[in-house]
Design brief:
disordered N terminus; globular; eleven-stranded mixed sheet; 22% helix; 502 residues; alpha+beta
Length: 502
């Protein structure tokens, strides 16, 4: 049975998974003292789809909430092409097979203390010791230590050619010493380095942020952010339409037509919606029944009907936003012959934070029933569903997964989601052939060879029928006419920056 250690939803020199769309920031990298009208800049009103599920711990799903709101950052970031780019580290170099040296820029934490090599090393040390481990550290053991006034030296137990890419993960955000002072809980409030500082968190309902005036990248143009966590997609769209919000993430496709064309921002992403089949217990432990389920699904209807054209038909783990995978994907390897279902019961589940998913699950239910299965559907809010999913309590699960979110490395998502020890293995897949293929891909240092090896591993994973890609999603962000500089990120790590304003 796979070990389940980590929430990933919201999971090695430099890889370049070229994307079909780039970051569209509209000045997101600019800084300034105001919006030119309000002197000190207006506050931004932002709605996010997922409420905090882990008390805003940086080590799980909440990490992307913090990065999207401009609170946290790591040593590196991802650029528009998926390459590692400078963040708190202004440069880096490899020293032998197992060591890297990162030169820090001049920066301070939001509590006023300096970002020093010792502080960075201590923060990364806390991440490596976290239980469960952050997604970006899946299968990796590293040690960080200060080396001089500005250099952090990071050593890994095994060669890790994508370490700079790995360190861009939101789950490896650098926090000050004060973040770790409260009995094991990690508190990002006032202890991060980003352009906006958390000042108040109202549980899973809302949060207040103020501009961090000493941000190394310059003062943000907005004076702060009033964030609301609204799981209901229709409610997010309505609040934008009535002028209560400036930015609403993940607008449901059913609501897109109700927004003015200028208000809708469509972004191709690396997010794939898939049907995951429990390969270790229950009905779909039988590979023949998994094959029957896959054969019984007409995946063409999801992009066309459920996503109303805001998506592309499911082709694999990686979608068309990752252009290096296009035209290179091989046929699935090792598929079993389909068996005829005899009324086998399937416990199917999904979550409603992304409003298209319940509809997609209903279509899956209908198609599986037509194929001869009996289906029981469960829909809950994600935070109330994840534990059961990771524990294998469902036979099937409809999941929207950003395949390059955790590290930007295409191998990482395969290791976390589809290997015996994967920390986000909702499919409960444990196949020696898959594990070998993923391990081989993880050893490849050359970019092109790593990509090819990842696709070879993907072919084995698809051959297990533990995952059936349904649709490659495009995200619709609602942006009020008065707002400029929203960051449309295909990796869904960032949303607001120093140049975001109204």
């Amino acid at each position: 049975m796979p070990a389940h250690r980590r929430s990933r939803l919201l999971a090695p020199l430099v890889l370049i998974p070229l994307l079909s769309s780039c970051f569209a920031s509209g000045g997101g990298g600019d800084s300034g003292d105001g919006d030119g009208k309000g002197g000190d800049g207006s506050r931004l009103r932002v709605a996010l789809a997922f409420p905090p599920a882990e008390n805003l711990s940086p080590y799980g799903a909440d990490a992307t909430l913090l990065s999207r709101l401009g609170v946290t950052e790591g040593l590196t970031s991802l650029d528009a092409n998926g390459s590692a780019a400078p963040a708190l580290a202004e440069s880096w170099r490899r020293d032998g097979d197992k060591a890297w040296e990162f030169t820090l820029r001049d920066a301070v934490f939001q509590d006023g203390t300096a970002v020093t090599p010792a502080a960075v090393a201590a923060s990364l040390g806390k991440a490596t010791g976290a239980e469960p481990a952050p997604a970006a550290l899946e299968g990796v053991t590293l040690t960080a230590e200060g080396s001089g006034d500005r250099v952090v030296r990071i050593t890994t137990d095994e060669p890790d050619p994508v370490l700079p890419l790995r360190l861009s993960s939101p789950s490896l955000a650098v926090l000050s010493k004060n973040a770790y002072a409260k009995g094991g809980r990690v508190d990002p409030v006032g202890n991060a380095t980003g352009p906006f500082e958390l000042t108040k968190v109202n549980g899973a309902t809302s949060a207040s942020l103020d501009r961090f005036d000493d941000y190394w990248g310059g003062r943000a143009q907005a004076s702060g952010i009033d964030a609301r966590f609204i799981a209901d997609g229709t409610a997010r769209a309505n609040a934008l339409r009535t002028g209560e919000l400036d930015i609403a993430e993940a607008v449901p496709v059913a609501q897109a037509a109700s927004l003015d064309k200028e208000t809708r921002r469509e972004t191709a992403t690396t997010r794939t919606t898939s049907l995951l089949l429990n390969a270790s217990s229950g009905t779909f432990k039988d590979a023949g029944l998994r094959a029957a389920a896959r054969a019984g699904l007409d995946t063409s209807v999801f992009a066309k009907d459920v996503y109303e054209g805001y998506g592309d038909p499911g082709a694999g783990v990686y979608g068309p936003a990752v252009t290096w995978a296009e035209g290179k994907r091989s046929d699935a390897v090792g598929r079993a012959d389909a068996k005829k279902p005899a009324g086998d019961t399937v416990k199917l589940a999904t979550y409603d934070n992304r409003p298209e998913l319940p509809e997609a699950a209903q279509v899956v239910k209908q198609q599986l029933e037509k194929a001869g299965f009996k289906v029981e559907l469960t829909v809950r809010e994600y935070s109330r569903l994840e534990g059961d999913a990771l524990d294998g309590k469902f036979d099937a699960f409809v999941l929207a997964r950003n395949t390059l979110l955790d590290t930007g490395d295409p191998v990482a998502v395969l290791a976390s989601d589809y290997t015996c020890d994967g920390g986000y293995n909702i499919a409960q897949l444990c196949d020696k052939g898959v594990d070998r293929a993923v391990a081989d891909a993880a050893l490849a240092a050359d970019t092109a060879k790593r990509q090819d090896a990842a696709l070879a591993a993907e072919a084995r994973i698809l051959g297990s029928d533990a995952v059936v890609p349904l649709v490659h999603q495009r995200i619709i962000t609602g942006v009020a006419d008065s707002v400029q500089g929203v960051i449309l990120d295909p990796y869904e790590r960032t949303l607001v920056g120093t140049g975001t304003r109204r």
